[in-house]
Each structure stands twice: as C-alpha cells, then as structure tokens.
Amino acid sequence: MTFLTIGHRGVMGVEPENTLRSFVRAQEAGMDAVELDLHLSKDGALVVMHDAEVDRTTDGSGAIADRTLAELRELDAGKGERVPVFEEVLDAVRSPLQAEIKDVAAARALAEVMHRRGLAERVEVSSFHDEAVAEIASLVPGVRTVLIASRWEADVVDRATAVGAASLALNIRRLTLEVVERAHAEGLRVIGWVVNTQDQLRLARAFELDAVTTDFPEIRRTGRFTA
C-alpha cells in the first residue's frame, strides 16, 4: 500500500507556515506533497495564507481582502519571510501541491493559473466547501479534488462523491474505521489530518489511510516504518 505524507502549510511545526521557507523545508524533508492555503487579496492576487485575516501569522492586522498585494508584501510572515503568491510557490519547489481554497472566487482564480501553467497533474485542490470543490472540478477537467471535514455527518462520503472528489481529508481525532471503510468502498482515498504524534500515526496506519497531513518532518521518516 502506498502511504503518502503531506507537509501541512509546508512544515509549520518547524518553520513559519505558508512561507517559501516552509515549503522548501518540506521538499528537503522528502514530503510526498506540500499543502497550502489560498485567499484573494483586494486586487485579486492569489496569496498563500490560511486565515482570512493576517493577524495570527504576520505582524499586521486586518482582513486579506482589505489589502492589496503590495500592502501584504510589507508584512513579516515569520523569520523575515514575506507573504507569497501561489505562482512563487510553484517556482520555488518541484513538489506536488495540495491547494486549499476557501470559496468559489478563489476556485476561479486558481483555475486560471492551472490552465495557464498546465497544473492539473501537479496540483490537487481541496476545500471544506462542497461548492468550491464542484466549481474547480467544472473549471479544470481532470483535476483531482479533496473534500475536507473536521466534524461531519453520516453523509460525508455521499457529499464527496456528489461533487466528484477523489479524496476525503478528515480530522484524525474524530476518524472512525467505519467511515474509512465506507469511503474506500466508494473508491475514495482517505487522508488523515493533522498527524503529529506516533499514536496518531499508528492509528492512521491501522485504519489503512492513504495519506496523512503533518506539521513535522519526522512523521514522514517514521511513517515508512510504522505498521
């Protein structure tokens, strides 16, 4: 069984999250893929940041949507890193990417970049929002998509299949074998997040997950040997 390890916002356990520094470190650590988050700036740039506001991860405050790219560039995103745009990440690392989008508008902006740069094979697109997953799938034929859930109802597998997702990314703290088996029976891959401890890794392997998302490079190394 192929078991993949995905670097969460790069390797945010050891580097500032969603920065070029973090993505390069994830690639150097041998992560099978690198996860990142996308938002649109006031002037429509596809910027890489998790929260809708800049407060937690930079020395600024306020909403991303209220700032232009030039204004976002002035912020320190940790260790002197600047807030990157998506295409800078594409150029900085060669790794496969998993790009999380927050809404339909971001899906449309991402689709434009994916078409222009031929990224359907390299970039997998994820979202908590069913409509965003459906939108990117309609705009980029053949793109691999992931429906994410932290808390979910019994219909989560049906939701994923309804929007054509190839994978489900589910909170490891709430994951059950029943859900994993139902997803696999429908042909869905299952990703566990966020797997940061050996106990969580052992659970992921016991459930026969297809992949895990982690903050730490060590999980990638030990994951190869944990049964």
Short key terms for the protein model shown above:
9 strands; alpha/beta; eight-stranded parallel β-barrel; 227 residues; globular
Describe it for me?
The chain has 227 residues and is an alpha/beta fold. The chain has nine helices and nine strands. The chain has helices at 20-28, 69-73, 86-92, 104-117, 130-139, 156-162, 177-185, 198-206, 217-223, and strands spanning 4-7, 33-40, 46-48, 97-101, 123-127, 145-149, 167-171, 189-193, 211-214. The protein has an eight-stranded parallel barrel, surrounded by six helices. Helix 4 packs parallel to helix 5. The longest helix is centred in the middle third of the chain and has 14 residues, at 104-117. The protein is globular, with a radius of gyration of 17 Å.
